[in-house]
Design brief:
Shape: elongated
Helix content: 10-25%
Structural class: alpha+beta
Length: about 425
């Protein structure tokens, strides 16, 4: 038995050795396949650390562009000072640093390689005390490569990757197309003005409002507007156009957004023309959606933030209810679980508020609804009934009185034990 075990062990070792040999042979074959023994010798084009590059000088299509990195941020300093799309500058530095250049020189007229003086792009990078330069022509018709010269009058070589499109960029290609960079969540005030119409939106701890004393604004409408505004992009730069031809002299209006740290302004011209931070631009169709003056007013009783709400207090039609939420479970003042919380919140959300016409405040106090989030309380007080049979309501935190249908309030009352 022991003899059989020894034989079995020996055979197993032989089998494993054969498997290892096959795997090693396959890998060697694969490595041999990847290695093109006939490929020309090549070397790294540049030798720098990406983070050390602080200046880029590029000349393409007859225009010189100079970028400088100041406090880790790329800025254009020539032909004019402009804000730069950071990724555009970083991509140039990163891609050039991965290139290899073939030692083999190519014969032919420079123009056939796109390296004629009027066609080629020249680029120079500065990293610390060193500089790196290259002249780049067009892409090779075969292979994912580009033609280049290490200096004017030098030999033509092939680069290890296509970069012709990368370096054939003008100042506008590097400029940031962001109109502004405010956060839609941090915005506190919005003003839209055009054609003699104006609307102002204001945010406080209780939500968005129209003007300083106007009615509550619809949260979803404002959030949607801010989302579109924060992602607004420049479609083209119009530096050479006269302000008058763009409707900017005189200006047609403006959009202003204030957040917690800064005020962002956009001057409006005719159509999609605008001026932002001193630059004349076109904004495409996106700007049309932002110029609106109507349908801002909320048609709901109150915002109902279900995920952060932790208190509900009701006093309606002689019935009262006080609820607290702990870890998503609602209970009344006695600690008894309240199973109809979802239905109750849905009924509150469904109350339609008419804020389109001002109504006189009611001295009567018929009831109230309060929603709580931590220390914040939003309360609507209900008063008397109008001639149309609707009940007058007002928010304690501000805004003019409005009306609601008694039938909507009755649906809430029906859920109160």
């Amino acid at each position: 038995m022991e003899r059989q075990n020894q034989i079995l062990t020996a055979l197993t070792l032989v089998f494993l050795a054969l498997v290892a040999l096959v795997v090693f042979d396959d890998k060697s074959s694969a490595d041999a396949d990847d290695l093109d023994l006939d490929a020309p010798a090549s070397r790294d084009l540049f030798d720098y650390e990406d983070k050390d590059v602080t200046r880029i000088e590029l000349e393409a299509k007859g225009v010189k562009t100079t970028l400088e990195k100041v406090d880790s941020t790329w800025k254009m300093v020539a032909p004019k000072e402009y804000t730069v799309a950071q990724r555009r500058a970083e991509e140039l530095v990163e891609r050039l640093n991965t290139l290899r250049i073939e030692e083999r020189a190519l014969d032919g007229e420079l123009e056939s390689f796109g390296l004629g003086e009027s066609e080629r792009a020249s680029i120079k990078l500065y990293a610390g005390q060193k500089s790196f330069s290259i002249l780049i022509g067009k892409d090779a018709p075969i292979g994912y490569r580009s033609y280049a010269q290490e200096e004017a009058g030098g030999k033509v070589h092939l680069l290890s990757s296509r970069v012709a499109d990368l370096v054939q960029r003008t100042p506008d290609d590097f400029r940031s197309k962001d109109v502004w960079s405010f956060s839609s969540f941090a915005a506190r005030r919005v003003r839209i003005e055009k054609g003699g119409q104006t609307v102002t939106l204001r945010k406080d701890d209780h939500g968005w409002w129209l003007g300083d004393e106007g009615p509550r604004a619809d949260e979803n409408t404002v959030s949607g507007w801010l989302s579109k505004a924060s992602t607004l992009k420049v479609s083209s730069f119009e530096d050479e156009a006269s302000p008058a031809s763009l409707g900017l002299d005189p200006a047609q209006g403006s959009i202003t957004v204030e957040d917690e740290t800064k005020t962002w302004s956009l001057t409006l011209g005719e159509g999609d023309a605008a001026k932002v931070e001193g630059a004349q631009v076109r904004l495409g169709e996106g700007i049309a959606e932002l110029i609106r003056f109507d349908d801002w007013t909320s048609k709901k009783l109150l915002p109902v933030p279900r995920y952060s709400l932790d208190a509900i207090e009701l006093s309606l039609g002689g019935k009262s209810l006080s609820l607290k939420s702990q870890e998503g479970a609602w209970s009344d003042a006695t600690g008894t679980a309240f199973s109809a919380s979802d239905a109750l919140l849905s009924a509150i959300e469904a109350v339609a508020a008419d804020r389109s016409q001002g109504v006189e405040a009611s001295a009567e106090r018929w009831g109230s609804v309060t929603l709580g989030e931590g220390d914040k309380r939003s309360t609507v007080v209900f008063g008397g009934v109008t001639g149309e049979g609707r009940r007058v309501a007002r928010e304690e935190v501000g805004g003019p009185s409005f009306t609601v249908a008694q039938a909507d309030l009755d649906k809430i009352i029906a859920l109160v034990p």
